[in-house]
Amino acid sequence: MTLLDTHNHFGSQTPFSKAANQSITVDGVSFAYRDVGPKTGVPLVVFNHWGAVLDNFDPGIIDGLAKKRRVITTDYRGIGGSEGSAPLTVGEMADDAISLIRALGVDKADLLGFSLGGFVAQDIALKAPERVRRLILTGTGPAGGTGIDRVGPVSWPLMIKGLLTLRDPKFYLFFTSTANGRQAASAFLKRLKERQQDRDKGPTPRALLRQLKAIRAWGKQAPQDLARLRAPTLIVNGDSDIMVPTVNSVALSNRIPDAQLIIYPDAGHGGIFQHHADFVAKALAFLEA
């Protein structure tokens, strides 16, 4: 692995598009991750959506956060550069994440979860509260939440539409169909292409289907006692999320003690990508509060 020259146009910060691919073995399984930003303070560990690999993290968000915070991004088991078989439950993904955080020598972390990553982050915070300082839950919902078990039926037609229109399905799945939404979708998908070399490998169909089973199981699972969550929590979504309906963000904010809620207007599942600069500012303010 080559260590990149960090003295570039980011000052002393390596941009996410140039961050080295790293790996760490946890319980005999190699997990892929990237580690950017200052190596001081409480790290922010970020968990991503269904089918996401390292190159599906938005550089606009990661670079913005990494100006102030150490940001660790990772591939779930069985996807991208991580070995093994994709877990069939969110609980197993959370167990993996807790072991990974421990293996990286991190005692306490802040967590940022988007979509499936928000399910995982909640589960980590419930299982290992002593490891979690602050929690940011975006485009996500609680176990047993409204419509979460229907992510597949909602997604497949728009995935097919993506194939037919030669567009990334996220163009349709993450953004509204308004002029604002379309513009934001194009800008987001362009940012995802910033990295030219050492890109992560995409998900296999098998991993996608296994992760979808985990999402469906989360949607059918009994509700968790979110009143037990003691970590300060920020919840963010767009007002028109078709994948994890926005009512779930409202439910989270009602059930987690003292949670803060931000709902972006004319924004979908990917509201944080549409408003990435504003989201970074609000997330950093929340993490530093």
Automatic annotation (TrEMBL):
Annotated GO molecular function terms are:
hydrolase activity
PANTHER family associated with the record: AB HYDROLASE-1 DOMAIN-CONTAINING PROTEIN, HYDROLASE, ALPHA/BETA FOLD FAMILY PROTEIN
Q: Which residues cross the membrane?
A: none
Keyword Signal recorded: no
Protein's name according to its UniProt entry? Alpha/beta hydrolase
According to its UniProt record, what is one Pfam family this protein matches? Abhydrolase_1
Which terms are listed as keywords in the entry? Hydrolase
Q: Cite the SUPFAM superfamilies for this sequence.
A: alpha/beta-Hydrolases (SSF53474)
**Chain ranges of the AB hydrolase-1 domain:** 43-275
Lineage: superkingdom: Bacteria
Give the lineage: Bacteria, Pseudomonadati, Pseudomonadota, Gammaproteobacteria, Pseudomonadales
InterPro entries assigned: AB_hydrolase (IPR050471), AB_hydrolase_1 (IPR000073), AB_hydrolase_fold (IPR029058)
Work out whether the entry's keyword set contains Cell wall biogenesis/degradation: no
Which source organism?
Pseudomonas taetrolens
